[in-house]
């Protein structure tokens, strides 16, 4: 163990081992980083597609609701118009009935014969 060649071989072997470990760890880290980057890219792409699908789905649901509400609004508007027409007709009949009852009352009690 006192020979210089032995110590030189030990140093060369240690340097080679240290270099190999450094190279392997660097390659391992690069491989892991590339794997993480590819997974990150896939997740982003997938989340973007899911986000786009949700937006499209919500847009179609929103459109359907708008159409349904417009339909309900139109139907209720026409129903209210029909009810309004019927109430006007009843009101006109009541007005005529009031006029007719007043005429009968005046006729019976002789108010209009003055």
TrEMBL record:
<keyword id="KW-1133">Transmembrane helix</keyword>
<keyword id="KW-0472">Membrane</keyword>
<keyword id="KW-0812">Transmembrane</keyword>
<feature type="transmembrane region" description="Helical">
    <location>
        <begin position="6"/>
        <end position="29"/>
    </location>
</feature>
<protein>
    <recommendedName>
        <fullName>DUF2746 domain-containing protein</fullName>
    </recommendedName>
</protein>
